[in-house]
Amino acid sequence: MIYPPATGTLSTRNLAIRPGPEYPWLHQVTWLRDVGKRVVLSPAGNLDTSRVGFLIDTADSSEAAQDSLSCLADALTLSVTP
Questions:
Q1: Is the distance from CB of 78 to CB of 8 less than 8 angstroms?
Q2: pLDDT, tens digit, 9 for 90 and up, residues 59-81
Q3: pTM, rounded to two decimals
Q4: How buried is residue 32: exposed, middle or buried, by Cβ count under 10 Å (0-12/13-18/19+)?
Q5: Nearest residue to 76 (alpha-carbon basis) of 57, 49, 48
Q6: Contacts of 27 (CB under 8 A, 6+ apart)
Q7: 54 Cβ contact list (under 8 Å, min separation 6)
Q8: Which of 35, 64, 65, 80 is close enough to 8 for a disulfide, judged by CB 3.0 to 4.6 Å?
């Protein structure tokens, strides 16, 4: 799951990598909130407002999973304005 860094209006939402041959472990990127929409941190937020999106990836080991998650975190840009 991708959660917002703060409560406010989602101003930037970008993942610099896409599923494909270069990243075979990344199977799906789904955005649940569009730029310009309000996002709210838990516990005030709900399932609709507190989640920006989700990613599905696979790995053969826990080390490979950590590497792919680190790569995804580095490629993710989220910004929220109050």
A1: no
A2: 999 999 999 999 999 999 999 99
A3: 0.89
A4: middle
A5: 57
A6: 19, 56, 57, 58
A7: 1, 2, 28, 30, 32
A8: 80
